[in-house]
């Protein structure tokens, strides 16, 4: 399988290229461009959340633990003493970082249901719904955010599949087929739950037709033809 740096760099390059394309087409603004690059890069690390010793899971739980502890302190800041707040901070962080992390790594198996296409689709659709309904962002940018997270995750899964091929003698490694999964019979009940969740999120998601009409609008993509190549090269091609 590909290592952390490979996943990070390739996801960044792919999401950066796609983000710059839709930005130049006028479909997103400056902040949307930066967020799409970031979300695509994050998506490129998400499938390894089921790996007990992976960098993404350790970094992710560290961040979640800090945010959880901070939220506890902010909620009780006016009712508790300084000493009690310090204890609350440490207990909250320790609970998330060690107890919840331990439970999560115990119940998850590397390259299990988390390391699959429907699970990543749930995360992408979930982010789309959160952006549109929760953060009240425009429909187009909400779909772009969810799509870039999903695309980054697909890049991760595809890289793992490519690394499962021994190119020296063109043989498939034992890990082949365990990365970009749509279904595994041994986890059939989990996959039933995943696909049921996907259906519910598709039903709840903001109208995709409006996003597609904006994405396929010829006037937007016509902007790419203006200034696509440096002026010197355009003059040479004339």
Percentage of residues in strands: under 5%
Number of strands: 2
Termini, distance in Å? 46 Å
Q: How many distinct helices?
A: 10
Radius of gyration based on Cα positions: 21 Å
Point out poorly predicted stretches. Answer: 166-170
In what order do the strands lie side by side in the largest sheet?
1-2
Sheet bearing the most strands, described? 2 strands, antiparallel
Q: Helix-strand pattern, N to C? A: HHHHHHEEHHHH
Helical content, roughly?
A: 55-70%
Describe the model.
It is a single chain. By secondary structure, this protein is an all-alpha fold. Helices cover 68% and strands 2% of the residues. The protein has helices spanning 4-24, 30-43, 55-76, 82-107, 117-134, 139-162, 188-204, 208-215, 218-222, 231-237, and strands spanning 165-166, 171-172. The chain has a two-stranded antiparallel sheet. Helix 3 packs antiparallel against helix 4. The relative contact order is 0.13.
